[in-house]
Automatic annotation (TrEMBL), chains A, B:
<dbReference type="InterPro" id="IPR046825">
    <property type="entry name" value="PDH_C"/>
</dbReference>
<dbReference type="Pfam" id="PF02153">
    <property type="entry name" value="PDH_N"/>
</dbReference>
<keyword id="KW-0560">Oxidoreductase</keyword>
<protein>
    <submittedName>
        <fullName>Prephenate dehydrogenase/arogenate dehydrogenase family protein</fullName>
    </submittedName>
</protein>
<dbReference type="Pfam" id="PF20463">
    <property type="entry name" value="PDH_C"/>
</dbReference>
<dbReference type="InterPro" id="IPR008927">
    <property type="entry name" value="6-PGluconate_DH-like_C_sf"/>
</dbReference>
<dbReference type="GO" id="GO:0004665">
    <property type="term" value="F:prephenate dehydrogenase (NADP+) activity"/>
</dbReference>
<dbReference type="InterPro" id="IPR046826">
    <property type="entry name" value="PDH_N"/>
</dbReference>
<dbReference type="InterPro" id="IPR003099">
    <property type="entry name" value="Prephen_DH"/>
</dbReference>
<dbReference type="GO" id="GO:0008977">
    <property type="term" value="F:prephenate dehydrogenase (NAD+) activity"/>
</dbReference>
<dbReference type="GO" id="GO:0070403">
    <property type="term" value="F:NAD+ binding"/>
</dbReference>
<feature type="domain" description="Prephenate/arogenate dehydrogenase">
    <location>
        <begin position="1"/>
        <end position="279"/>
    </location>
</feature>
<dbReference type="InterPro" id="IPR050812">
    <property type="entry name" value="Preph/Arog_dehydrog"/>
</dbReference>
<comment type="similarity">
    <text>Belongs to the prephenate/arogenate dehydrogenase family.</text>
</comment>
<dbReference type="InterPro" id="IPR036291">
    <property type="entry name" value="NAD(P)-bd_dom_sf"/>
</dbReference>
<dbReference type="GO" id="GO:0006571">
    <property type="term" value="P:tyrosine biosynthetic process"/>
</dbReference>
Amino acid sequence: MKIGIVGLGLIGGSLGLDLRSLGHQVLGVSRQERTCKIAVARGATDEAATDLALLADTDLIFICTPIAHMRSTVSQLIPHISLETILTDVGSVKASIVQEIAPLWRNFVGGHPMAGTTESGIEAAQHGLFAGNPYVLTPTETTPSDAIALLESILRPLQVRLHRCQPEAHDRAVAWISHLPVMVSASLIAACLSEADPDVIKLAQALASSGFRDTSRVGGGNPELGLMMARYNRAEVLRSLLVYREQLDRIIHEIDHENWTTLEETFQQNQAARPKFMK
Amino acid sequence: MKIGIVGLGLIGGSLGLDLRSLGHQVLGVSRQERTCKIAVARGATDEAATDLALLADTDLIFICTPIAHMRSTVSQLIPHISLETILTDVGSVKASIVQEIAPLWRNFVGGHPMAGTTESGIEAAQHGLFAGNPYVLTPTETTPSDAIALLESILRPLQVRLHRCQPEAHDRAVAWISHLPVMVSASLIAACLSEADPDVIKLAQALASSGFRDTSRVGGGNPELGLMMARYNRAEVLRSLLVYREQLDRIIHEIDHENWTTLEETFQQNQAARPKFMK
Protein backbone atom coordinates (compact mmCIF):
# COMPACT_ATOMS: atom_id res chain seq x y z
CA MET A 1 0.00 0.00 0.00
CA LYS A 2 1.03 3.60 -0.55
CA ILE A 3 1.20 5.28 2.86
CA GLY A 4 1.87 8.91 3.73
CA ILE A 5 3.31 10.28 6.96
CA VAL A 6 3.18 13.98 7.86
CA GLY A 7 5.58 14.83 10.65
CA LEU A 8 8.75 12.78 10.74
CA GLY A 9 9.59 12.75 14.47
CA LEU A 10 9.92 9.79 16.82
CA ILE A 11 6.42 8.44 16.11
CA GLY A 12 6.21 9.28 12.40
CA GLY A 13 9.74 8.01 11.77
CA SER A 14 9.22 4.80 13.74
CA LEU A 15 5.94 4.12 11.89
CA GLY A 16 7.81 4.60 8.61
CA LEU A 17 10.55 2.15 9.58
CA ASP A 18 8.03 -0.55 10.53
CA LEU A 19 5.67 0.02 7.58
CA ARG A 20 8.49 -0.06 5.02
CA SER A 21 9.87 -3.28 6.46
CA LEU A 22 6.35 -4.74 6.03
CA GLY A 23 6.57 -3.95 2.32
CA HIS A 24 4.56 -0.73 2.14
CA GLN A 25 5.67 2.25 0.09
CA VAL A 26 6.10 5.16 2.53
CA LEU A 27 6.13 8.84 1.54
CA GLY A 28 7.02 11.37 4.21
CA VAL A 29 6.49 15.10 4.63
CA SER A 30 8.34 17.29 7.09
CA ARG A 31 8.65 21.05 7.38
CA GLN A 32 12.41 20.72 7.37
CA GLU A 33 14.59 19.62 4.43
CA ARG A 34 17.13 18.24 6.86
CA THR A 35 14.56 15.95 8.50
CA CYS A 36 13.45 14.71 5.05
CA LYS A 37 17.04 13.76 4.19
CA ILE A 38 17.59 11.93 7.47
CA ALA A 39 14.27 10.07 7.10
CA VAL A 40 15.26 8.75 3.68
CA ALA A 41 18.83 8.01 4.78
CA ARG A 42 17.57 6.08 7.83
CA GLY A 43 15.08 4.13 5.72
CA ALA A 44 12.05 5.58 7.48
CA THR A 45 10.55 6.72 4.16
CA ASP A 46 11.07 5.84 0.49
CA GLU A 47 10.78 9.51 -0.41
CA ALA A 48 10.35 12.65 1.66
CA ALA A 49 9.61 16.29 0.85
CA THR A 50 8.48 19.53 2.47
CA ASP A 51 5.50 19.73 0.07
CA LEU A 52 2.24 17.97 0.99
CA ALA A 53 1.63 17.43 -2.76
CA LEU A 54 3.94 14.41 -2.43
CA LEU A 55 1.07 12.58 -0.73
CA ALA A 56 -1.47 13.14 -3.56
CA ASP A 57 -1.64 9.49 -4.46
CA THR A 58 -1.58 7.76 -1.08
CA ASP A 59 -4.22 5.40 0.33
CA LEU A 60 -3.63 6.19 4.00
CA ILE A 61 -1.94 9.11 5.74
CA PHE A 62 -0.71 9.26 9.34
CA ILE A 63 -0.78 12.79 10.79
CA CYS A 64 2.17 12.78 13.20
CA THR A 65 2.68 16.51 13.78
CA PRO A 66 2.40 18.11 17.21
CA ILE A 67 -1.25 18.28 18.28
CA ALA A 68 -1.37 22.07 17.80
CA HIS A 69 -0.68 21.68 14.05
CA MET A 70 -2.92 18.74 13.25
CA ARG A 71 -6.00 20.68 12.20
CA SER A 72 -4.11 23.06 9.92
CA THR A 73 -2.13 20.16 8.45
CA VAL A 74 -5.35 18.39 7.48
CA SER A 75 -6.78 21.59 5.95
CA GLN A 76 -3.66 22.03 3.85
CA LEU A 77 -3.65 18.36 2.89
CA ILE A 78 -7.25 18.21 1.64
CA PRO A 79 -6.72 19.98 -1.71
CA HIS A 80 -4.06 17.38 -2.63
CA ILE A 81 -5.79 14.07 -1.83
CA SER A 82 -8.68 12.02 -3.13
CA LEU A 83 -11.88 11.44 -1.16
CA GLU A 84 -10.95 7.78 -0.63
CA THR A 85 -7.76 8.57 1.23
CA ILE A 86 -7.97 7.54 4.87
CA LEU A 87 -6.55 9.97 7.40
CA THR A 88 -5.50 9.03 10.92
CA ASP A 89 -3.58 10.89 13.61
CA VAL A 90 -1.32 9.81 16.47
CA GLY A 91 -2.21 12.49 19.03
CA SER A 92 -2.19 11.54 22.70
CA VAL A 93 -5.58 13.17 23.32
CA LYS A 94 -8.54 12.33 21.17
CA ALA A 95 -11.82 14.17 21.81
CA SER A 96 -10.57 17.63 20.81
CA ILE A 97 -8.73 16.31 17.75
CA VAL A 98 -11.64 14.18 16.56
CA GLN A 99 -14.03 17.10 17.04
CA GLU A 100 -11.78 19.30 14.90
CA ILE A 101 -10.85 16.90 12.12
CA ALA A 102 -13.88 14.62 11.69
CA PRO A 103 -16.00 17.48 10.25
CA LEU A 104 -13.22 18.19 7.73
CA TRP A 105 -12.72 14.64 6.46
CA ARG A 106 -15.17 11.76 6.35
CA ASN A 107 -12.50 9.03 6.15
CA PHE A 108 -10.80 10.06 9.36
CA VAL A 109 -10.05 7.65 12.24
CA GLY A 110 -8.54 9.07 15.43
CA GLY A 111 -5.65 7.02 16.79
CA HIS A 112 -3.14 6.93 19.62
CA PRO A 113 -0.14 4.61 19.59
CA MET A 114 0.90 4.40 23.25
CA ALA A 115 4.63 4.09 22.85
CA GLY A 116 7.57 6.39 23.25
CA THR A 117 11.08 6.85 24.51
CA THR A 118 12.68 9.70 26.43
CA GLU A 119 14.23 10.82 23.14
CA SER A 120 12.41 12.60 20.33
CA GLY A 121 12.95 13.48 16.67
CA ILE A 122 13.75 11.42 13.56
CA GLU A 123 17.13 10.45 15.04
CA ALA A 124 15.30 8.60 17.85
CA ALA A 125 12.99 6.68 15.46
CA GLN A 126 13.30 2.93 15.87
CA HIS A 127 12.02 -0.36 14.51
CA GLY A 128 9.48 -2.16 16.69
CA LEU A 129 8.65 0.85 18.86
CA PHE A 130 4.94 -0.08 18.88
CA ALA A 131 5.17 -3.87 19.22
CA GLY A 132 3.46 -5.12 22.35
CA ASN A 133 2.06 -1.68 23.21
CA PRO A 134 -1.55 -0.46 23.07
CA TYR A 135 -2.75 1.35 19.94
CA VAL A 136 -6.12 2.98 20.54
CA LEU A 137 -8.52 3.85 17.71
CA THR A 138 -11.38 6.23 18.45
CA PRO A 139 -13.88 6.08 15.59
CA THR A 140 -17.24 7.81 16.02
CA GLU A 141 -20.71 6.73 14.83
CA THR A 142 -20.08 8.42 11.48
CA THR A 143 -16.66 6.89 10.79
CA PRO A 144 -16.92 4.54 7.77
CA SER A 145 -16.37 0.98 8.98
CA ASP A 146 -14.19 0.08 5.97
CA ALA A 147 -11.81 2.93 6.91
CA ILE A 148 -11.46 1.44 10.41
CA ALA A 149 -11.01 -2.05 8.98
CA LEU A 150 -8.30 -0.95 6.57
CA LEU A 151 -6.39 0.97 9.24
CA GLU A 152 -6.58 -2.00 11.60
CA SER A 153 -5.29 -4.33 8.88
CA ILE A 154 -2.26 -2.05 8.42
CA LEU A 155 -1.61 -1.76 12.16
CA ARG A 156 -2.09 -5.39 13.20
CA PRO A 157 1.21 -6.59 11.65
CA LEU A 158 3.00 -4.02 13.87
CA GLN A 159 1.99 -6.37 16.71
CA VAL A 160 0.24 -3.61 18.60
CA ARG A 161 -2.55 -4.32 21.08
CA LEU A 162 -5.50 -2.72 19.28
CA HIS A 163 -8.24 -1.04 21.33
CA ARG A 164 -11.36 0.73 20.10
CA CYS A 165 -13.27 3.23 22.23
CA GLN A 166 -15.03 6.59 22.20
CA PRO A 167 -12.65 9.59 22.07
CA GLU A 168 -14.05 10.75 25.43
CA ALA A 169 -13.45 7.37 27.10
CA HIS A 170 -9.86 7.42 25.80
CA ASP A 171 -9.23 10.88 27.21
CA ARG A 172 -10.67 9.96 30.60
CA ALA A 173 -8.68 6.73 30.79
CA VAL A 174 -5.36 8.35 29.83
CA ALA A 175 -6.06 11.19 32.26
CA TRP A 176 -6.07 8.55 35.03
CA ILE A 177 -3.07 6.50 34.04
CA SER A 178 -0.87 8.93 32.14
CA HIS A 179 -1.73 12.60 32.67
CA LEU A 180 -2.71 12.56 36.37
CA PRO A 181 0.52 10.71 37.32
CA VAL A 182 2.51 13.51 35.64
CA MET A 183 0.73 16.24 37.66
CA VAL A 184 0.95 14.23 40.90
CA SER A 185 4.64 13.58 40.33
CA ALA A 186 5.33 17.20 39.32
CA SER A 187 3.68 18.41 42.53
CA LEU A 188 5.95 16.08 44.51
CA ILE A 189 9.15 17.59 43.10
CA ALA A 190 7.78 21.13 43.47
CA ALA A 191 6.86 20.40 47.12
CA CYS A 192 10.33 19.07 47.94
CA LEU A 193 11.90 22.13 46.33
CA SER A 194 9.85 24.40 48.59
CA GLU A 195 11.58 23.09 51.76
CA ALA A 196 13.17 26.20 53.27
CA ASP A 197 15.99 24.53 55.25
CA PRO A 198 18.98 24.07 52.89
CA ASP A 199 20.51 21.37 55.13
CA VAL A 200 17.33 19.31 54.95
CA ILE A 201 17.24 19.71 51.15
CA LYS A 202 20.85 18.55 50.88
CA LEU A 203 20.19 15.59 53.15
CA ALA A 204 17.02 14.72 51.23
CA GLN A 205 19.00 14.77 47.97
CA ALA A 206 21.66 12.53 49.49
CA LEU A 207 19.14 10.04 50.90
CA ALA A 208 16.72 9.89 47.94
CA SER A 209 16.58 6.42 46.43
CA SER A 210 14.30 4.26 44.29
CA GLY A 211 11.05 5.41 45.96
CA PHE A 212 11.67 9.04 45.12
CA ARG A 213 13.25 8.20 41.78
CA ASP A 214 10.21 6.27 40.56
CA THR A 215 7.55 8.56 41.99
CA SER A 216 9.22 11.70 40.59
CA ARG A 217 10.16 10.33 37.16
CA VAL A 218 7.26 11.48 35.00
CA GLY A 219 6.96 14.80 36.87
CA GLY A 220 10.59 15.61 36.13
CA GLY A 221 10.37 14.74 32.43
CA ASN A 222 9.88 16.71 29.24
CA PRO A 223 8.07 20.00 30.15
CA GLU A 224 6.40 20.22 26.71
CA LEU A 225 4.81 16.83 27.20
CA GLY A 226 3.31 17.76 30.57
CA LEU A 227 2.08 21.04 29.19
CA MET A 228 0.53 19.34 26.18
CA MET A 229 -1.43 16.95 28.41
CA ALA A 230 -2.77 19.80 30.56
CA ARG A 231 -3.62 21.89 27.52
CA TYR A 232 -5.29 19.42 25.23
CA ASN A 233 -6.92 17.19 27.82
CA ARG A 234 -7.68 20.02 30.20
CA ALA A 235 -11.19 19.04 31.31
CA GLU A 236 -10.31 15.42 32.06
CA VAL A 237 -7.01 16.29 33.71
CA LEU A 238 -8.79 18.79 35.95
CA ARG A 239 -11.49 16.27 36.78
CA SER A 240 -8.93 13.61 37.73
CA LEU A 241 -6.95 16.15 39.78
CA LEU A 242 -10.02 17.10 41.81
CA VAL A 243 -10.81 13.45 42.56
CA TYR A 244 -7.15 12.96 43.42
CA ARG A 245 -7.21 15.88 45.84
CA GLU A 246 -10.19 14.33 47.61
CA GLN A 247 -8.24 11.11 48.11
CA LEU A 248 -5.21 13.05 49.27
CA ASP A 249 -7.36 14.95 51.77
CA ARG A 250 -8.77 11.67 53.00
CA ILE A 251 -5.27 10.30 53.65
CA ILE A 252 -4.27 13.56 55.36
CA HIS A 253 -7.38 13.30 57.51
CA GLU A 254 -6.66 9.67 58.49
CA ILE A 255 -3.10 10.53 59.51
CA ASP A 256 -4.17 13.68 61.32
CA HIS A 257 -6.83 11.78 63.26
CA GLU A 258 -4.65 8.69 63.70
CA ASN A 259 -7.27 6.49 62.05
CA TRP A 260 -4.69 3.77 61.49
CA THR A 261 -7.16 1.02 60.66
CA THR A 262 -8.80 3.06 57.88
CA LEU A 263 -5.40 4.09 56.54
CA GLU A 264 -4.20 0.50 56.51
CA GLU A 265 -7.35 -0.52 54.60
CA THR A 266 -6.55 2.06 51.92
CA PHE A 267 -3.01 0.71 51.58
CA GLN A 268 -4.36 -2.84 51.43
CA GLN A 269 -6.88 -1.93 48.72
CA ASN A 270 -4.10 -0.25 46.74
CA GLN A 271 -1.82 -3.25 47.04
CA ALA A 272 -4.61 -5.56 45.86
CA ALA A 273 -5.70 -3.29 42.99
CA ARG A 274 -2.38 -2.18 41.50
CA PRO A 275 -1.52 -5.47 39.73
CA LYS A 276 -4.65 -5.03 37.58
CA PHE A 277 -2.97 -1.98 36.03
CA MET A 278 0.21 -3.96 35.23
CA LYS A 279 0.72 -6.02 32.11
CA MET B 1 34.28 -7.77 67.97
CA LYS B 2 31.34 -9.46 69.69
CA ILE B 3 28.17 -8.05 68.15
CA GLY B 4 24.54 -8.70 69.11
CA ILE B 5 21.50 -8.40 66.90
CA VAL B 6 17.95 -8.37 68.28
CA GLY B 7 15.37 -9.04 65.59
CA LEU B 8 16.49 -11.35 62.82
CA GLY B 9 14.48 -10.11 59.86
CA LEU B 10 15.69 -8.74 56.55
CA ILE B 11 17.80 -5.96 58.11
CA GLY B 12 19.04 -7.85 61.17
CA GLY B 13 19.81 -10.95 59.15
CA SER B 14 21.59 -9.02 56.40
CA LEU B 15 23.69 -7.14 58.97
CA GLY B 16 24.64 -10.49 60.50
CA LEU B 17 25.73 -11.94 57.15
CA ASP B 18 27.94 -8.93 56.40
CA LEU B 19 29.38 -8.58 59.91
CA ARG B 20 30.27 -12.27 60.17
CA SER B 21 31.99 -12.21 56.80
CA LEU B 22 34.06 -9.28 58.13
CA GLY B 23 35.27 -11.52 60.98
CA HIS B 24 33.00 -10.40 63.80
CA GLN B 25 31.33 -12.82 66.16
CA VAL B 26 27.57 -12.33 65.81
CA LEU B 27 24.98 -13.39 68.38
CA GLY B 28 21.32 -13.12 67.44
CA VAL B 29 18.08 -12.98 69.37
CA SER B 30 14.64 -13.58 67.89
CA ARG B 31 11.26 -14.22 69.48
CA GLN B 32 10.91 -17.33 67.39
CA GLU B 33 12.95 -20.52 67.70
CA ARG B 34 12.41 -21.21 64.03
CA THR B 35 13.96 -17.86 63.03
CA CYS B 36 16.97 -18.57 65.30
CA LYS B 37 17.57 -21.87 63.55
CA ILE B 38 17.34 -20.35 60.09
CA ALA B 39 19.67 -17.50 61.09
CA VAL B 40 22.37 -19.93 62.20
CA ALA B 41 21.79 -22.24 59.24
CA ARG B 42 22.07 -19.32 56.80
CA GLY B 43 25.24 -18.06 58.48
CA ALA B 44 23.64 -14.79 59.60
CA THR B 45 24.64 -15.43 63.24
CA ASP B 46 27.18 -17.65 65.01
CA GLU B 47 24.60 -18.41 67.67
CA ALA B 48 20.97 -17.43 68.13
CA ALA B 49 18.44 -17.75 70.95
CA THR B 50 15.10 -16.43 72.10
CA ASP B 51 16.65 -15.21 75.39
CA LEU B 52 18.24 -11.74 75.51
CA ALA B 53 20.72 -13.10 78.10
CA LEU B 54 22.69 -14.46 75.13
CA LEU B 55 23.86 -10.87 74.47
CA ALA B 56 25.27 -10.31 77.99
CA ASP B 57 28.84 -10.11 76.81
CA THR B 58 28.57 -8.13 73.57
CA ASP B 59 30.30 -4.83 72.73
CA LEU B 60 27.66 -3.53 70.35
CA ILE B 61 24.03 -4.46 69.82
CA PHE B 62 21.84 -3.64 66.81
CA ILE B 63 18.14 -3.33 67.70
CA CYS B 64 16.39 -4.54 64.53
CA THR B 65 12.89 -5.20 65.84
CA PRO B 66 9.83 -3.41 64.47
CA ILE B 67 9.78 0.19 65.72
CA ALA B 68 6.85 -0.52 68.07
CA HIS B 69 8.97 -2.99 70.06
CA MET B 70 12.26 -1.09 70.24
CA ARG B 71 11.69 0.65 73.53
CA SER B 72 10.52 -2.46 75.37
CA THR B 73 13.37 -4.48 73.83
CA VAL B 74 15.91 -2.03 75.24
CA SER B 75 14.25 -2.07 78.66
CA GLN B 76 14.41 -5.86 78.71
CA LEU B 77 17.98 -5.86 77.47
CA ILE B 78 19.37 -3.45 80.06
CA PRO B 79 19.50 -5.91 83.01
CA HIS B 80 21.69 -8.24 80.91
CA ILE B 81 24.37 -5.90 79.54
CA SER B 82 27.29 -3.87 80.83
CA LEU B 83 27.30 -0.05 80.84
CA GLU B 84 29.97 -0.03 78.10
CA THR B 85 27.79 -1.86 75.60
CA ILE B 86 26.83 0.37 72.69
CA LEU B 87 23.25 0.16 71.49
CA THR B 88 22.06 1.25 68.09
CA ASP B 89 18.79 0.78 66.23
CA VAL B 90 17.84 0.53 62.55
CA GLY B 91 14.43 2.22 62.66
CA SER B 92 13.36 4.27 59.66
CA VAL B 93 12.25 7.20 61.83
CA LYS B 94 14.58 8.68 64.38
CA ALA B 95 13.27 11.51 66.58
CA SER B 96 10.65 9.44 68.42
CA ILE B 97 13.01 6.47 68.87
CA VAL B 98 15.92 8.61 70.07
CA GLN B 99 13.62 10.45 72.49
CA GLU B 100 12.47 7.12 73.92
CA ILE B 101 15.75 5.23 74.11
CA ALA B 102 18.42 7.88 74.77
CA PRO B 103 17.12 8.49 78.34
CA LEU B 104 17.32 4.74 78.99
CA TRP B 105 20.87 4.17 77.75
CA ARG B 106 23.79 6.59 77.59
CA ASN B 107 25.73 4.64 74.93
CA PHE B 108 22.91 4.74 72.40
CA VAL B 109 23.34 5.95 68.80
CA GLY B 110 20.26 6.15 66.59
CA GLY B 111 20.79 4.74 63.11
CA HIS B 112 18.98 4.13 59.84
CA PRO B 113 20.41 1.93 57.11
CA MET B 114 18.53 2.99 53.98
CA ALA B 115 18.34 -0.30 52.18
CA GLY B 116 15.70 -2.90 51.61
CA THR B 117 14.04 -5.25 49.20
CA THR B 118 10.38 -6.00 48.55
CA GLU B 119 10.85 -9.18 50.58
CA SER B 120 11.11 -9.39 54.35
CA GLY B 121 12.16 -11.89 57.01
CA ILE B 122 15.33 -13.87 57.65
CA GLU B 123 14.80 -15.81 54.39
CA ALA B 124 15.24 -12.54 52.47
CA ALA B 125 18.47 -11.55 54.27
CA GLN B 126 21.35 -11.07 51.86
CA HIS B 127 25.06 -10.24 51.73
CA GLY B 128 25.90 -6.71 50.61
CA LEU B 129 22.39 -5.30 51.13
CA PHE B 130 23.82 -2.05 52.52
CA ALA B 131 26.80 -1.51 50.21
CA GLY B 132 26.54 1.75 48.30
CA ASN B 133 23.47 2.87 50.23
CA PRO B 134 23.13 5.67 52.81
CA TYR B 135 23.43 4.77 56.51
CA VAL B 136 22.34 7.70 58.68
CA LEU B 137 23.47 8.09 62.29
CA THR B 138 21.57 10.54 64.49
CA PRO B 139 23.61 11.15 67.67
CA THR B 140 22.53 13.94 70.00
CA GLU B 141 24.64 16.38 72.02
CA THR B 142 24.81 13.87 74.87
CA THR B 143 25.85 10.86 72.76
CA PRO B 144 29.44 9.83 73.74
CA SER B 145 31.72 10.51 70.79
CA ASP B 146 33.63 7.23 71.23
CA ALA B 147 30.34 5.31 70.87
CA ILE B 148 29.73 7.08 67.53
CA ALA B 149 33.32 6.45 66.45
CA LEU B 150 33.17 2.76 67.27
CA LEU B 151 29.85 2.28 65.47
CA GLU B 152 31.17 4.10 62.41
CA SER B 153 34.30 1.93 62.39
CA ILE B 154 32.09 -1.18 62.32
CA LEU B 155 29.82 0.19 59.59
CA ARG B 156 32.43 1.66 57.24
CA PRO B 157 33.64 -1.77 55.97
CA LEU B 158 30.05 -2.46 54.89
CA GLN B 159 30.75 0.22 52.24
CA VAL B 160 27.78 2.28 53.30
CA ARG B 161 27.57 6.02 52.65
CA LEU B 162 27.67 7.34 56.24
CA HIS B 163 25.67 10.44 57.12
CA ARG B 164 25.36 12.19 60.49
CA CYS B 165 22.51 14.53 61.33
CA GLN B 166 20.00 15.50 64.00
CA PRO B 167 17.13 13.00 64.43
CA GLU B 168 14.67 15.77 63.46
CA ALA B 169 16.55 16.62 60.26
CA HIS B 170 16.56 12.93 59.33
CA ASP B 171 12.82 12.64 59.85
CA ARG B 172 12.10 15.75 57.81
CA ALA B 173 14.38 14.65 54.96
CA VAL B 174 12.94 11.12 54.77
CA ALA B 175 9.42 12.58 54.95
CA TRP B 176 10.21 14.40 51.68
CA ILE B 177 11.94 11.65 49.75
CA SER B 178 10.49 8.47 51.19
CA HIS B 179 7.28 8.93 53.18
CA LEU B 180 5.58 11.69 51.14
CA PRO B 181 6.08 9.74 47.88
CA VAL B 182 4.24 6.79 49.46
CA MET B 183 1.24 8.95 50.43
CA VAL B 184 1.23 10.74 47.04
CA SER B 185 1.41 7.43 45.21
CA ALA B 186 -1.22 5.81 47.43
CA SER B 187 -3.60 8.70 46.72
CA LEU B 188 -3.06 8.15 42.98
CA ILE B 189 -4.16 4.52 43.10
CA ALA B 190 -7.08 5.36 45.39
CA ALA B 191 -8.18 8.14 43.00
CA CYS B 192 -8.09 5.84 39.96
CA LEU B 193 -10.11 3.23 41.86
CA SER B 194 -12.81 5.81 42.55
CA GLU B 195 -13.65 6.19 38.83
CA ALA B 196 -17.31 5.19 38.61
CA ASP B 197 -17.42 4.08 34.94
CA PRO B 198 -16.34 0.41 34.79
CA ASP B 199 -15.50 0.69 31.06
CA VAL B 200 -13.11 3.56 31.73
CA ILE B 201 -11.48 1.61 34.57
CA LYS B 202 -11.00 -1.40 32.29
CA LEU B 203 -9.57 0.77 29.54
CA ALA B 204 -7.28 2.55 32.01
CA GLN B 205 -6.00 -0.82 33.26
CA ALA B 206 -5.37 -1.94 29.68
CA LEU B 207 -3.56 1.27 28.72
CA ALA B 208 -1.49 1.79 31.89
CA SER B 209 2.23 1.62 31.18
CA SER B 210 5.54 2.73 32.69
CA GLY B 211 4.29 6.16 33.82
CA PHE B 212 1.55 4.68 35.96
CA ARG B 213 3.70 1.72 37.00
CA ASP B 214 6.48 3.93 38.39
CA THR B 215 4.27 6.58 39.97
CA SER B 216 2.07 4.00 41.70
CA ARG B 217 4.81 1.62 42.84
CA VAL B 218 5.44 2.76 46.41
CA GLY B 219 1.75 3.52 47.01
CA GLY B 220 0.83 -0.04 46.08
CA GLY B 221 3.49 -1.67 48.25
CA ASN B 222 3.56 -3.21 51.72
CA PRO B 223 0.65 -1.69 53.74
CA GLU B 224 2.51 -2.11 57.05
CA LEU B 225 5.40 -0.02 55.77
CA GLY B 226 3.15 2.86 54.73
CA LEU B 227 1.30 2.70 58.01
CA MET B 228 4.55 2.69 59.97
CA MET B 229 5.75 5.85 58.20
CA ALA B 230 2.49 7.67 58.91
CA ARG B 231 2.44 6.51 62.50
CA TYR B 232 5.98 7.06 63.64
CA ASN B 233 6.81 10.11 61.54
CA ARG B 234 3.33 11.58 61.79
CA ALA B 235 4.19 15.25 62.32
CA GLU B 236 6.70 15.43 59.47
CA VAL B 237 4.56 13.39 57.11
CA LEU B 238 1.60 15.69 57.79
CA ARG B 239 3.79 18.76 57.30
CA SER B 240 5.08 17.50 53.96
CA LEU B 241 1.56 16.52 52.86
CA LEU B 242 0.23 20.02 53.55
CA VAL B 243 3.06 21.61 51.55
CA TYR B 244 2.40 19.07 48.82
CA ARG B 245 -1.29 19.94 48.73
CA GLU B 246 -0.38 23.60 48.24
CA GLN B 247 1.75 22.69 45.22
CA LEU B 248 -1.01 20.47 43.88
CA ASP B 249 -3.53 23.30 44.28
CA ARG B 250 -1.14 25.59 42.44
CA ILE B 251 -0.94 23.20 39.48
CA ILE B 252 -4.73 22.76 39.51
CA HIS B 253 -5.07 26.55 39.50
CA GLU B 254 -2.65 26.99 36.57
CA ILE B 255 -4.51 24.40 34.50
CA ASP B 256 -7.91 25.78 35.47
CA HIS B 257 -6.84 29.32 34.51
CA GLU B 258 -4.85 28.14 31.47
CA ASN B 259 -1.69 29.81 32.79
CA TRP B 260 0.43 27.74 30.45
CA THR B 261 3.59 29.79 30.86
CA THR B 262 3.59 29.41 34.65
CA LEU B 263 2.82 25.71 34.37
CA GLU B 264 5.65 25.22 31.89
CA GLU B 265 8.03 27.00 34.26
CA THR B 266 7.09 24.55 37.03
CA PHE B 267 7.78 21.60 34.75
CA GLN B 268 11.09 23.16 33.69
CA GLN B 269 12.16 23.74 37.31
CA ASN B 270 11.28 20.13 38.10
CA GLN B 271 13.23 18.79 35.15
CA ALA B 272 16.27 20.84 36.19
CA ALA B 273 16.04 19.95 39.89
CA ARG B 274 15.29 16.23 39.78
CA PRO B 275 18.81 15.05 38.82
CA LYS B 276 20.08 16.49 42.14
CA PHE B 277 18.01 13.84 43.91
CA MET B 278 19.53 11.05 41.80
CA LYS B 279 22.78 9.28 42.60
